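I am still getting used to backbone structure tokens and would like to learn alongside you. Would you supply a protein for us yourself, any chain you care to pick? Start from the sequence, derive the backbone structure tokens from it, and show both lines together. Go ahead whenever you are ready, and we will take it from there.
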Amino acid sequence: MTSDIRDLLVSDPTTLPLIIGLLKADPPPSVDLQRAIGSGLGLAANMCIRPDPAFAAEIQTQLVATNSTDAKQQYAAITGNQLIGTVGGGGGGISAGASGGQVNPLGNNPSSSGALQTFVSNSVTNPNNNFFGGSTGSAGSITNNTTTSVSPSTP
């Protein structure tokens, strides 16, 4: 079902409202079907993000307007957990959450001298592999004292 949803959307974007309509049905479809639809929507959005980013965003916007938490979670898992609660429509149970780090690295006053926060991975050590360090020396002792003069020759 997941690949059918993906293929249908990629081949015919006008089917998006019909697919979304399945998630809005009363009674709602089974949890497994909601997850399959969410996965198919996520795969279609990933395939469309480069050639048609507006359609990829529309997939996300339409999904946010549903009440299917299961479909939204599957979509988020397929698309790399991109934020879908803030695109429009309504949050529908998916929270953008916080990603950590400073929000304002310079403090409240942009002219203050607050220190910037360095990003460090918790699972990878950060060795000092600066391959662009060092110096190239100086060319201060090189001089060029060559003088060239051209005189017109007379025939």
